[in-house]
Design brief:
The complex is a heterotrimer of chains A (about 600), B (about 180) and C (about 300).
Chain A lengths: L1 H5 L2 E10 L7 E11 L4 E5 L6 H8 L7 E6 L2 E2 L6 H7 E4 L12 H11 L4 H15 L14 H13 L5 E5 L7 H16 L3 E5 L3 H4 L4 E6 L2 E7 H6 L1 H6 L6 H12 L10 H12 L27 E9 L10 E9 L4 E5 L6 H8 L7 E6 L2 E2 L7 H7 E4 L12 H11 L4 H14 L16 H13 L5 E5 L7 H16 L3 E5 L3 H7 L2 E6 L2 E7 H6 L1 H6 L6 H11 L11 H13 L6
Parallel strand pairs in A: 3-8, 3-9, 6-7, 7-8, 13-18, 13-19, 16-17, 17-18
Antiparallel strand pairs in A: 1-2, 1-4, 4-5, 9-10, 11-12, 11-14, 14-15, 19-20
Chain B lengths: L2 H22 L4 E3 L5 E3 L3 H10 L1 H21 L4 H6 L2 H4 L4 H15 L3 H26 L5 H30 L12
Antiparallel strand pairs in B: 1-2
Helix pairs in contact in B: 1-2, 1-3, 2-3, 2-6, 2-7, 2-8, 3-6, 6-7, 7-8
Chain C lengths: L23 H4 L2 H17 L3 H17 L4 H6 L5 H13 L12 E3 L2 E3 L1 H27 L2 H12 L9 H31 L12 H6 L2 H24 L18 H22 L2 H17 L1
Antiparallel strand pairs in C: 1-2
Helix pairs in contact in C: 2-6, 2-7, 2-11, 3-6, 3-11, 5-6, 7-8, 8-10
Classes of the chains: A alpha/beta (about 600), B mainly alpha (about 180), C mainly alpha (about 300).
Chain lengths: ~600, ~180, ~300
């Protein structure tokens, strides 16, 4: 029994299964055994559906094991009388910013937890103050919660949890729905909490975020496959790949470098560490004495097609609102898309990316300016708005929300049916669309509700493809997907594009844009800041940073190296290119300036 | 606190919000060739009652009623608003929608879910129509002849609409097995 | 001017504007404001005397002046319905049977009858409406939503001792208020997303009742499931933060009524009492008789 008290959290042969309404029994956790000590920083990774969220919810007793036991500070989570103690010791930050905020005013939300615990009135004020200071939200104390950005809302959730003074905080993919700039701030906050000795259990899809932890637990289909020191877990590359997981980019680079420079350490986890290691390896010999940083703007590329398939000219959009609701607008934004190009749009949250996309298929009408499809103005009325919406297919962010039919096939058929096509034609379109997204036609009889997130995402995409658009416009297509799902989707898009069709994609994921887009536009505050070849845009680091954006990790590493004085060509995007560049440095052949 | 109680509080709140949203957007109005629209804003009350019981149904009904009173008073738009500033017309009848719908649902449920949902939708909607119009009649705001006319022309189709919407929504959410075994393509 | 498409819903959400002009009315304890408001509505509805209702109207207008909000803003709310108001009042006067016996008819033509009582009913309709509209406008000008929910919660708190779930109900209202913009956003999202798939929400065509109803499904079904999913997420979050209802809870914000609040409360109750008394003592009839007598006397 003395052993029980040593660990903070203990799972003892835990099984968890449930039966979703009338379906088959699903085993979400199978024979899970683990112990977490005070002060540990544990990352939990695994593909979608591997059981991460279920595991976390066992710890704060939102779920209890079907078999086996979970102990928190020696208290069994199955016992109702311990619930209060357990939940005040273990707090949780959820994925969705909006639905974990309970009050309408910031300080009241932070106070909610301690109020429930019966903390005396006189102490409440102090706790709220302290909790807000810990996340840097002190100024927002009296603001309505609806005015916070998604990133701020997540920080508020941390404050609100912190106010209960838990010994452990669980993070259930807490950064999945916030933009990169907010993500970094969030991660820094987590580091601060960790430094205070709070135990952290961090479930995530992001390998970079997982790499910051001391210990990594890898789940697959409810079972713990790997559990140990971060470096050791990530060293098992093949194992991780079979589980549909990736390595952090920095680590992949390190391994690549190791193949031609055998003294270079393989197990480097973070970008900073990699840069340090490279600095040490290169010994500062071939440092140039000026940093090669591109100032100014990327070069606008001339458009060589006769008529771009889609063009927006000088769009202005004013979104009128009376109360404290967001005002989105566009100021003089222009965009061209060639017949088989992939065009990327990047910009921080609230910059107007979505508003711009909604103009492209005529959903929104600009206050000034116009949109042209195949040279025909949308305003002129020469082209019917229904036609535009068919030919310019728009896939919204988190499109799973739009699925409403009971059976998958019917939902894909919704688009074609709205066009009053013959039954055979509809069937054919649905079949082709589903195959294009990698779903077998037999899935048509599967219930929509039973599909996984990745499958639903692809089903929604199929629904758009079934309308046979000439241009696909996508808003954050890989949001919330696990690395495998992301890879699948990117391949589907690339495949579709080879058929000579154009794509416009807006994304926070710099990796996605780097891989997909030939040309990229940068939007900020409703204005077009820059445009050009993707490589070119990404090499203008200062421009991106001042506008709240960042680089793909590989490019970021090179940028850090260049900041230390190494001569690096900054127009590099992928891990492979980065590897080559570093190899060149190490071989010390040429001095490229 | 029991799980179910927290859930009831939240669902009551969310369904109440849904009533409000339907009241202020085009979604709440289903235009008919007669020119008058059928309304759908009472449906979340029925949904709340069917899913979580009569207490939740009554609370949602109360939120719906009070909101219709507030809107009638602060931003009146049509003739109905002139009457709705009276809580006896706007709030009191709405308190019963949930209970009525729930009682019927529970009774018919023993046969099968789908007819239970349909009847709950019909009864809930009719309760709304009959009680509101009834109060107007009792308070001598409208002649009874007129009331019967409105009840027939508006109330009956509205009940039909409520029945269909209630049935489809709850069947979809609860994943109730329907006769179809697969997609129709 | 921007031609707004059918998808921009948020512009419709301005019910009850809070006007931050900081007046005596603004600084009143929200509980007092709430109680007085409810009493006002009850009085306006229950008291069938023209004089009383006029009196209440005057009091409300004075209140508007005290609040330093432009009085014409409140009256502006009446404008859109002015016509309906008149029509409905006329219906009361002419067309509703049962108001007064056949002896009373001042004028009659087929089924249209005008009696003393029906005239009173018509006038009362207009006055009551004005009182409630202006009264609630006044209330919404001076009270923020947060104050309102605090007011509700605090007023109901004493009932907690007898087991009444005051905090739970207040929380329900709070959640409802919070979720309105969220659900509006979801509704707007769905309208856009489904329209992008070719869904047609133009109900204009008469192609059969059930076919038109089917067009609602791509909106209603996902809207509802999203709402419920949000509800479940929120309840998880509340449980994770140990919500257990009103018992044993402490409060960051406690309302403290000041002497000014009690004075206002007393004044309010006095006013309401006067209005009720005027009604109960049939002051209307007495004044009307006195007026008729004066006229007769004057004519002689």
């Amino acid at each position: 029994m003395a052993e029980q008290e040593k660990s903070f959290i203990r799972f003892d042969r835990v099984w968890f299964s449930y039966r979703p309404d009338g379906g088959d029994r699903i085993f979400a956790l199978q024979d899970v055994n683990l112990q977490i000590a005070h002060g540990e920083y544990v990352a939990v990774v695994g593909a979608n559906g591997s059981g991460k969220s279920t595991l976390l919810r066992q710890i704060n007793a939102l779920l209890t094991p079907t078999e086996g036991d979970v102990y928190v500070n020696g208290l069994n989570t199955k016992r109702r009388e311990h619930l209060l103690d357990i939940r005040s010791a273990v707090g949780m930050v959820f994925q969705e910013p909006e639905t974990q905020i309970i009050a309408s005013v910031v300080e009241e939300d932070v106070a909610f937890g301690p109020e429930n615990l019966g903390v005396p009135d006189t102490e409440l004020g102090g706790r709220v103050k302290w909790a807000l200071e810990s996340t840097g939200l002190s100024e927002m104390r009296n603001m309505p919660t609806s005015t916070l950005s998604a990133g701020q809302k997540q920080l508020l959730a941390v404050s609100s949890t912190l106010a209960m003074m838990p010994g452990c905080i669980l993070f259930d993919e807490a950064t999945a729905m916030i933009d990169p700039a907010s993500k970094r701030r969030f991660i820094q906050t987590v580091d601060t909490l960790r430094a205070r000795g709070i135990t952290i259990v961090y479930a995530t899809h992001s390998m970079e975020e997982a790499a910051r932890a001391d210990r990594v637990i890898v789940l697959s289909e409810g079972k713990i496959i790997l559990d140990g020191n971060t470096e050791r877990v990530f060293a098992q590359e093949e194992r991780l790949n079979t589980l549909k997981l990736d390595l952090p980019v920095a680590m992949r680079l390190a391994k690549n470098i190791h193949t031609f420079s055998h003294s270079f350490p393989e197990n480097v986890l973070t970008a900073e560490a990699l840069v340090e290691a490279l600095d040490a390896r290169l010994g500062g010999e071939i440092r140039a004495h000026h940093t090669h940083r591109r100032a100014g703007e990327p070069e606008k590329r001339a458009v060589y097609w006769e008529t771009p398939i889609l063009e927006a000219k000088n769009l202005f959009h004013r979104y009128l609102s009376g109360t404290a609701l967001e005002v989105k607008s566009l100021h003089d934004v222009s965009l061209t898309v060639g017949a088989n190009e992939i065009v990327g749009i990047i910009g921080p949250t609230g910059s107007g990316k979505s508003t711009l996309l909604h103009h492209l298929n005529g959903l929104l009408r600009p206050s000034e300016g116009d949109v042209f499809f195949e040279g025909v103005s949308l305003k002129s009325g020469q082209i019917h708005i229904g036609e535009v919406r068919t030919k310019v297919g728009l896939l919204f962010q988190n499109p799973e929300k739009q699925l409403f039919e009971q059976f998958s096939g019917d939902d894909v058929a919704f688009g074609p049916r709205n066009k009053n096509l013959e039954k055979e034609q509809v069937r054919e379109r649905v079949r082709m669309a589903m195959e294009m997204v990698g779903l077998p036609f037999s899935f048509k009889d599967r219930k929509t509700s039973e599909l996984s997130l990745g499958e639903k995402r692809r089903l929604a995409l199929a629904g758009i493809l079934a309308m046979e658009p000439r241009v696909l416009v996508l808003d954050e297509p890989t949001a919330s997907l696990d690395p495998y799902g992301r890879r699948q989707l990117i391949n589907i898009l690339k495949q579709w594009n080879t058929g000579g069709r154009a794509i416009v994609v807006a994304s926070h994921s710099m990796e996605d844009i780097a891989e997909l887009a030939d040309r990229t536009y940068v939007i900020y505050g409703g204005r077009l800041i820059a445009e050009g070849l993707t490589r070119d845009v990404f090499s203008h680091y200062d421009l991106l940073v001042t506008h709240g954006l960042c680089l793909p990790v590989a490019a970021e590493i090179l940028r850090l190296l260049s900041a230390r004085g190494y001569a690096i060509s900054e127009s590099l995007l992928s891990v492979e290119e980065a590897t080559e560049e570093i190899r060149r440095l190490i071989n010390g052949q040429e001095n490229r300036v | 606190m029991k799980v179910t109680n927290v859930r009831k509080i939240v669902i009551a709140g969310v369904m109440g919000a849904l009533c409000i949203v339907l009241s202020v957007t085009p979604l709440g109005f289903f235009p008919m060739p007669t020119g008058v629209s059928l309304t759908t804003m009472h449906i979340p009350v029925i949904l709340g009652a069917v899913l979580e019981g009569p207490v939740v149904g009554t609370v949602v009904g109360c939120i719906f009623g009070v909101f219709s009173l507030l809107r009638a008073a602060i931003a009146p738009q049509g003739p109905a608003d002139v009457w709705f500033v009276n809580p006896l017309v706007s709030v009191l009848p709405r308190l019963f929608i949930g209970i009525a719908a729930w009682l019927v649902y529970r009774a018919v449920r023993k046969i099968h879910e789908i007819p239970a949902l349909i009847t709950a939708g019909i009864v809930g909607s009719l309760t709304n129509t009959v009680l509101v119009l009834g109060v107007l009649g009792l308070l001598r705001k409208l002649p009874w002849a007129g009331i019967l006319g409105i009840a027939a022309v508006n109330g009956l189709p509205e009940a039909g609409l409520s029945a269909v919407v209630t049935c489809v929504i709850v069947a979809s959410w609860k994943k109730i097995e329907t006769r179809r075994k697969g997609s129709s393509i | 001017m921007a031609k707004r498409t059918e998808f921009e819903l948020f512009t419709k959400l301005s019910i009850g504007q809070y006007m931050p002009t900081d007046s005596v009315m603004h600084r009143l304890d929200p509980r007092i404001k709430l109680v007085l408001c409810i009493l006002l509505i009850c009085a306006a509805v229950g008291v069938g005397s023209v004089i009383s209702t006029l009196f209440l109207l005057v009091v409300v207008i004075i209140g508007l002046f005290l609040s330093r909000v432009q009085v014409r803003l409140a009256f502006a709310a009446l404008r859109p319905v002015a016509i309906f108001l008149v029509i409905l009042a006329l219906i009361q006067v002419f067309a509703v049977p049962g108001l007064g016996t056949s002896d009373d008819a001042l004028w009659q033509w087929r089924f249209l009858r005008v009696t003393n009582r029906s005239i009173t009913a018509g006038v009362l309709l207009v006055l009551r409406f004005a009182v409630i509209v202006l009264g609630l406008s006044l209330f919404s000008f001076c009270t923020t939503t947060t104050e309102l929910t605090h007011g509700i919660e605090h007023s109901l708190r004493p009932l907690q001792r007898i087991g009444f779930p005051a905090h739970e109900l207040a929380l329900t209202v709070n959640i409802a208020v919070r979720f309105v913009p969220i659900l509006m956003g979801e509704a707007e999202w769905l309208m856009k997303a489904q329209a992008s798939r070719g869904a047609d929400f133009g109900y204009g065509t008469r192609r059969g009742f059930f076919r038109r109803v089917k067009r609602l499904f791509p909106l209603f079904i996902p809207l509802f499931s999203q709402s419920l999913k949000h509800a479940y997420s929120l309840s998880e979050a509340m449980e994770a933060r140990c919500y257990m209802g009103g018992k044993g809870r402490t409060y960051l914000i406690r309302l403290h009524a000041k002497s000014g609040d009690y004075i206002a409360l007393s004044a309010g109750m006095l006013i309401i009492s006067i209005a009720v008394m005027v009604y109960l003592f049939h002051m209307d009839e007495r004044l009307w008789s006195m007026w008729k007598a004066l006229l007769k006397g004057g004519l002689q």
